Amino acid sequence: AQSVTQLDSQVPVFEEAPVELRCNYSSSVSVYLFWYVQYPNQGLQLLLKYLSGSTLVKGINGFEAEFNKSQTSFHLRKPSVHISDTAEYFCAVTRGNTDKLIFGTGTRLQVFP
Amino acid sequence: DAGVIQSPRHEVTEMGQEVTLRCKPISGHNSLFWYRQTMMRGLELLIYFNNNVPIDDSGMPEDRFSAKMPNASFSTLKIQPSEPRDSAVYFCASSPDSGRNEQFFGPGTRLTVL
Lengths: 113, 114
Fold this sequence. Notes:
Chain A has no helices and twelve strands. Chain A is mostly beta strands.
């Protein structure tokens, strides 16, 4: 069975500082990995996804993530955050075309001025 | 493209009443997902459909919950009878296919059961 662990429930950071949100997964087979963002009172939207190929994936709003198979991680990074990045971030995994998406418990990123 | 449409956006009802949540997926998408989000349990997948057929309903909490997808452009999630512990935000999402593809989420329905 697959699972996703987001190690930090909350990450406070000052504006313009770098940030890393951690995500580890467990699966005995190849997986596809996703990061979603949820702004207050909205649904989730895709930030980026890893399906295959280059392990460094770039997404919207300046975010990027690196797939590390040996460490079973897919950490999300941004070199300089803005106040508008304050939101809940979810890591998710799926095995393939007929499998459901398994979400982590989420990490709340709070950016302070 | 209007995106995934959910109605109502907010619902307040009394315990014991029937509640019906509605979802219109993005045209052309084959998969539809119903999620529930609460502070205590986070984001939970309740059920998902592929080509209008329920594939996995293992997340449906109990018999009070039921979901249907009579055609490719409409789905309902019904709770009968509702209980205060059902209070949550319910999201519908659709995807061109399950698995590899991005799921597009609706704005959610905030349900409050008094």
